[in-house]
Amino acid sequence: MPELPEVETIRRTLAPHLVGRTVRHVDLVDGTLVQGGVLPAGLTGALAGRTALAVDRRGKYLLIRLTGGFTWMIHLRMSGRLSWQARPAALSEVRFLRLRAYLDDGSALDVVDMRRLGMVCLIGPGEEGAPQGLRDLGPEALDSEAFSVAYLVARMHGRDVTIKGLLLDQHVVAGLGNIYVDESLHRAGIHPGRRAGSLTRVEVRRLHGAIRAVLLDGIEHLGVSFSLYRDAEGNRGFMSDYLRVYGRAGAPCQTCGTPVERTRIAGRGTAFCPRCQRPGLVRGVRARPGGTKLRGAAGPEGAS
DNA sequence: CGCTTCCTGACT
DNA sequence: AGTCAGGAAGCG
């Protein structure tokens, strides 16, 4: 459920409570989400007695750096939540609680995950335990050095995937998910079903700027909370109020007034404006060279 | 490259 | 009963 801005918000709300604290012990309420080759008993045992040095993020992965060179890795996937409590409630009172770490100041960190799709593991000093998904991650979406326009152009060249599918691929760029991909494509005025390899350099530049702008917007507004998402302190984000297409099917596009459409692309529900995001290029040939104003009401975003 | 699967709950 | 959900590995 959480994408880059949500995980970043969790990181920021969690770090002050966690850094400098030592894990006293861990209750593994339900070990089904513990993967990555570390057995539940090994994980809980190895966590105890270690002190948190920092809370980092890589893509949608949270990385809690611990003494002894260990990293506690958490991926929340679709329905995971991290909940820090100064005075932890009884275990039985937390619905879908999978794991609780008690800290040395009497507080606790709960890993809550309704659908059990999340993943928790401990990475040893040699990084040997790093799961494939983390190892093979592409550049950070907000790292403009690594995730540059030139990089994106190169990765898209000759690709026959939909642009939406490509942006969802964490090997290409780390951190985007369904919401922010739809929002980025809308801001860039690009149809989500376009083949990645068919985008012009100008379009890629616009898209790159839109991605940065949308993600920074998301962080500034503390993420999207339309349902389950909360930060580590239980607070909602209010980025939902600033979304232009996601979750707005049937509502007028805020740019041009055309009703937002919803379809399925790259196996995911996809919202887009059929006017601001016309396909534009079909089979490598510009569909409408003169005709309508291609400048589009959306205009370039953040393409500085 | 795209579809299915993992899992559980909410909504139509 | 059927569909869908913010993710991503795995399969054909």
Description of the structure:
By secondary structure, this protein is of the alpha+beta class. The protein is 24% helix and 20% strand. The strands form four sheets. The protein has a four-stranded antiparallel β-sheet with strand order 1-6-7-5, with helices on one face. The protein has a four-stranded antiparallel β-sheet with strand order 2-3-4-8, with helices on one face. α1 packs parallel to α7 and α6 (178-188) packs across α7 (201-220). The structure holds a DNA duplex (12 and 12 nucleotides).
What's the gist of this structure?
With 304 residues, this protein is an alpha+beta fold. It has 7 helices and 12 strands.
The coarse overall form would be globular
- How would you write the strand order of the largest sheet? 1-6-7-5
- Helix count? 7
Integer average pLDDT: 89
Count of strand segments: 12
In whole angstroms, the N-to-C terminal distance is 31 Å
Gyration radius (Cα, Å) is 21 Å
Estimate what percentage of residues fall within beta strands: 15-25%
Largest sheet: 4 strands, antiparallel
Helical content (DSSP H or I, runs of 4+): 10-25%
How do the SSEs run, as a string of H and E? HEHEEEEEEEHHHHHEEEE
Sheet/helix structural class: alpha+beta
Which segments are poorly predicted (pLDDT under 50) over 5 or more consecutive residues?
281-304
Task: Compile the SSE list and pairings.
Layout: H1 4-18, E1 23-28, H2 40-47, E2 52-58, E3 61-66, E4 71-75, E5 80-85, E6 97-103, E7 108-113, E8 119-123, H3 132-135, H4 149-156, H5 163-168, H6 178-188, H7 201-220, E9 261-265, E10 268-272, E11 281-282, E12 285-286
Antiparallel strand pairs: 1-6, 2-3, 3-4, 4-8, 5-7, 6-7, 9-10, 11-12
Helix pairs in contact: 1-7, 6-7
The structure holds a DNA duplex (12 and 12 nucleotides).
